[in-house]
Each structure stands twice: as C-alpha cells, then as structure tokens.
Structure prediction request, 458 residues.
Amino acid sequence: MSPRSLLALTLALFLVAAELPARTPLKPGRNAFSKEQDVELGREASRKIEQQVKVVDDPALRNYITDLGRRLYSTVREPDANYPFNFHVVADKSINAFALPGGPLYVNTGTIVAADNEAQLAGVIGHEIGHVIMRHSTNQITKAQTAQLPLAILGAVLGSGAAGQLTSVVAQLGVGSVFLKFSRDAERQADVLGTQMLYDAGYNPEEMARFFQKLAGEGGRGPEFFSDHPDPGNRMNAVQAEARTLGAARTSTALTDRFQAMKRLAQQWNNRAPSPNQKGGGASSSGTSGGSTGSRPEINASGTFRSYNGSGFRISHPESWNASVQESTVLIAPQQGVVNDGIAYGAMISVFEPQEQRGVRLTLSEATRQLLEQLAQQNPDMRRSGGTRSINVNGIAADSITLSNKSPLRGETEVDWVVTTWRPDGMLFYIIFIAPERDFSRLKPAFDQMLNSLQLAN
Ligand code: ZN
Prediction:
C-alpha cells in the first residue's frame, strides 16, 4: 500500500469515526420491567402466537432469516442491547413482520416475496429489532400504568411470578393489542434504529424508505404492515432524513446472492398459505390452530351492565365485556371480540388534542375533522359512509359520524361509529363503537346504552 492510499484509508476511517455522533441518538423510554422480564414475557407470548400462526419449518429459509437478523443485530452499539434473539418465518401472504419483547422475531413469507432486494427485507427486520432493543412493548405497558391501568392488573403484572400473571392479561387483551401495536413515536424510533443498522451492515438505507413507498402504493395488497406500524408518510421522510444524516455512502442492496433463491422458496410457502382475504383462512394444510381465523365469534351484549371509571369519565358496558388500557386508550370489548390481533367487536375510548389555528378555539366539528384525518392516516381502508350529525349525550353536544373499515374478521367490512365531544380541559374526547357490518344493528342497542351512560368529569 502506497503512503498516499494509506493516507486515504486513514482519512476514510477518520471520516467514518467523525460521522458517528451525527446519527440520531436513541434512548429507550421509561420501563418498570427488568430486561429479564422482557425475555420471559416474549417467551410466553411466542408460545401463544405460535399456536395461531404457521411457522415455516424449512431450515434454508430459517437459517437465511437468522443470518440476516444476526448481521443487523451485531451492528448495534448500545451496550445494554443483548437479547436472545431468535428469528422465524411465518407462512402468511400478508406483508408484515413482528417482534415480541426480548427477542422472538417473525417475518411473513409475504414480506420476503414483496421485497425487491435484500436491503428492503433487512429494513423490515432491522425495524423489528429496533422495537425489541428499545423495549417498546414493556415501555407501553409502563406508560399505561401511569395513564390508568387498573391497579389490580398492574399489581399482578409487577408482582412476583409476573410472567404467569401477565399471560392472563395478555390473553385478556389479545397478544396483538399489547405487544404489536405501538405509538407513532415508537415506530419512528424503530425506523431510525433500523436505518442505522442497515447502514452499519453495509446496505443502502434508502431502500427501507423505498420499500415503504412501494407498499404504500400497493393499496389492497400491502397495508397490513402499516396497520400494525402506523403512519407511513412521515416515516418515509424520517427514514430518508436519517439515511442522509448517516451519509448514505453505501450502495449495496445485497450482501449475499441468497436473496433471490430465498424469495423463490418463500413464494412456494406463500402459495400454500391462507390468503389474508380468504374468509376462515382454513386452507393451511398443516392445520393452523388457535381458532383466531375460524368461525364468527358469538358476541353477547345483553344482560346487566357494569360501570367503568376511566380517567375523567365513567361509562357502563355489558358485564361480560372487559375494559383494558393501552397508552391513553381504553378498550372495552368481549374476549372473543379480539380477532386476529384487532378489535372486531367493542368500543375504543380515547382523547385527541386538536391543533388550534392562530389561537382561535376550534369548533367541535373542526376538531372532529382533525381527528378523522388522523384516523384515516392510521387506517388506510377507513372510509366515510355518512355525514356528521349533531347529537346530544346526557345534555352535552356531541358529533356522530359513521365510517366503514376493514374488519379484523377476514374478508369482512366493519362499521366504526365515532362520537366526539369536548372534555372540560379542551381535549377532544371520543368513542369508536366497532362491529362487523352484518352484526352492527344487533349490537347497536348495547352501544346506545353505553353512550347514554357516559359521564365526563367536570
Ligand atoms: Zn413497528
């Protein structure tokens, strides 16, 4: 090596080192759980999940995903980020991936098939690794604790032998609603960490943004990833911004030539997997158990009601339904109403902070319009199916809007009935009553009774 090229190399190394502080620093949020509890919880949840999905037992595919995952994970510099990761492929056509606390990580065959190159697939895996390292699941439960999680549940969660108790909480809420739905901030953080991993592993991090763009453009086929990982638009920009910060010197899209072969293999599994739009999804030859994609649940909303005291409100709901809290959202749903990790039947109660323009107080309908815009962003299949009606809830002015949306029950459309009203502190309070289209009128009397019982604190 000539002195000149040595100098160039030294300079290059110096530039790489100098570049490091430029990356967006990432800090995990507050967490009441230990790392060991994350691992324990993830292990419990993976047992449950693996009864519901079809894990591909092809060693070639599994080794490939494991190699890819390890390569990404090995670039992580956080000293505290050692988790027993294990990587799995799920035979499922929908484009999605998810990770459980402490390391179990699952990638659908549909994602492998949809990726144009290894960098795009790596982007999705890096994003999921990001959720694990930043401990978004248990951070979310921790935040719910301060919001309004009933103390009895939290006591059980944090007490000794937590995993067993928490498993019952998980069963009550549905694994998906506790572990797989994160805030947009958490998604952004996972994106940034994923982008950094891509870069450090030698991939072009822009491919991650390109993959989002491709999925967003695919409409009918690709929104699953976005419904579990909200807000594609801003996230694309954030990934691009981080890629620019890193310098984006990498041009490689593949580190190995295995990708194309694995994509063909994934396609074969995909052909045998149930289609996301196939009702019942029973096509799987190896018998997906767990019943989450099986027949329609029997929902009982009649009989006595009991009262739920939330923060700043009180509402009655059918006795057999359960209330649970996730961040600042209260879900009131029958246990069988949680289907395929989504709420097929039930009510969601939350608050929204509208953006005032030039300090002028918004009208209720203006604030409601902002809320609907945000909901539409998070739910690409959501549509207006009627105008806004002014109604009266216990003497308080409220707006009522009916939307249609894709139901978690495969192949079905649901009705989302949204009711909004002002809270005394200027936040917009809202309830969304949810049921599949063909069951909505049967549940409407129960929804009406819930709404009529609503009381906001003064
Ligand atoms: Zn995510």
